[in-house]
Amino acid sequence: MRELLRQLDERYPALSRWLGGPLDVQAPALGFSVAVHLTLLLVLGLMGYSAAQEHKEELTSQVVDTKLADFNRVEVQDIDRPDAPLTTAAPASTAPTLGSIAVEGSGQPQPTIVTNGSNGNVSLAKFEIKRTGDVMLPAAPQLGQNVAIRGTGSEHAGDVEGAVDHVAVEIMRNLERGRTLVIWAFDASGSLVVERDKLGKHIEGVYNHIRELDKEKKAEEGGLLTAVVGFGQDRKVLTQPTSDPAEIISAIKAVPIDTSGVETTFGTVSEIVRKWHKYKDDKGKSYHAMVIVVTDEVGDDEGRLEEAITTARQGKVPVYVLGSSALFGKVEGHMNYTDPKTKQIFYNLPVRLGPESVRLETIHLPFWYNGPQYDSLDAGFGPYALSRLAGETGGIYFVTRLGPGRVTFDPNSMREYRPDWVSTAAYEQGIARSKLRQAVLLAAQVTQQNLPGQPSLSFPSAEGPEFKEAMKQNQIIVARIEYTVKEALVPISDREVIKMRDRETSRRWQAHYDLIRGRLLAMRIRCNEFNSACARMLKDQPKFKNPGSNTWKLVPDDEINARDSQAKVVAEEARKLLKRVVDDHPGTPWAMLAQRELKDPFGFKWVEANVPPPPKRNEMAAAKKKAAPMPAKPVEVPKL
Length: 640
Fold this sequence. Notes:
about 650 residues, alpha/beta, Rossmann fold, 7-stranded mixed beta sheet, 3-stranded antiparallel beta sheet, 12 strands, about 40% helix
């Protein structure tokens, strides 16, 4: 041993000097030091194990009054909001550098980018992607395994039947901790009548399935109790905690329709937790509580989100949500509603279905030419507030209804595009550290207005007075679109922002930036080409070559004809950006929107055509009068 130490001493003299002398001389002291440190580590490990064994996760128990009469008057206490951790993504260079074309606004007002003193060079932690497959119903011995990853995104459960199967598994997982009280909170709005009816039919199967999985009989003899609450503008307890499935089903079917159009979702969760998180039965036995919210909208009291999260976490009550997918980059959606009494159908009633993120992160820009507008795309996740409520409390947001006419996407493909589900303050802090993300939000904000759609591309003969008037009116439409596009391009085309594109590793923000800049550049070229084509027509005023022609039409063309020398460069830049979105983000909303923009070339050319003249005014008036129904008493539109 001493010979080995002597050889080490000769090879590493610096180590000998650091230890204060030759290694062979220091050997006894070194051995003693190693022994002492190993003993100390062993003692600390045993102490930690002992402390862990002594610590039990349990709630302080007390009897809670759950009378119906006073439930609506539960006071809301002020609770300090905990500091939320900031989730950010790390720099990388996963895409080629873009050109430095900056499309300026020609004197347009420029939005200010607030950086809070940040220089943009922030070292960020890489975003970890976790993938899970479809959740299967496990046998009893498998219940200890992770069935779903909490807090990492929405789980797609298909229809209501699939959702309740998932819920059965989660109830069993909670039963493993001990006696469990499940509180179902049903949105009482009219839009959810059909779903409540479906759930009522399957709820007995859920509890039957729990009994099949419950090999240790944890749910028996009052081990599993259930309460039902209906909520709209107010709240109503429909059954006291019970183990009788028939009583539970009856309570679900008895949820009254709330016609106020107001959903106090987050306030309801807070009050349920305060009321029942320390529940004891009449024998003094304590219960762990879990809340299951069934709703098809975000809720109108989103300002109480942090309160609901804090209250549930302090009470150690997980919150699960059965709800719809958020709309991609939109707050409001529309749905058809059938009045259960009159059977009258109301079409396109507004409902708040999103967005999936804290702020609107996508632009609102109508597409030109024939084809879908894609106004209602599924985001692949639940709405921000409800998804965060579930994730932060240890629950899960189950996407259960994928509405008719909505384009949906593979959940596995969408997992790495999860929004930033952090507090609003943490989200704003993260945005302030990234000029690219600031630019994306500014561009999105500029376009959130009722922009006109495509201008008319059909014009009468250039020889008549109607031609110039039609040309003037359509150029006004294009001018408004072009002004907004130029304004939105200012932040997104900043040279420093363009350089930062390759440092952004969040797949979501990469897709946002490329799609937004690509679409804005494409629209600017289209507006420019439209005006250029109109100028050529006004200057040349050609005549029809075909005797049967009566209309000039603008049709898409690959050739860029504008005099601006940079137009072709900008058009090519737009194509590259949009193509990159299609290639890099297949099977996502970003790729679908980019492909739609690339469907038609950016240029225009004039062609002549024969268009049948519209019917005369007196003929149209007579047709409308004949088709008009007898006047009836106005029907009040329901609020969902």
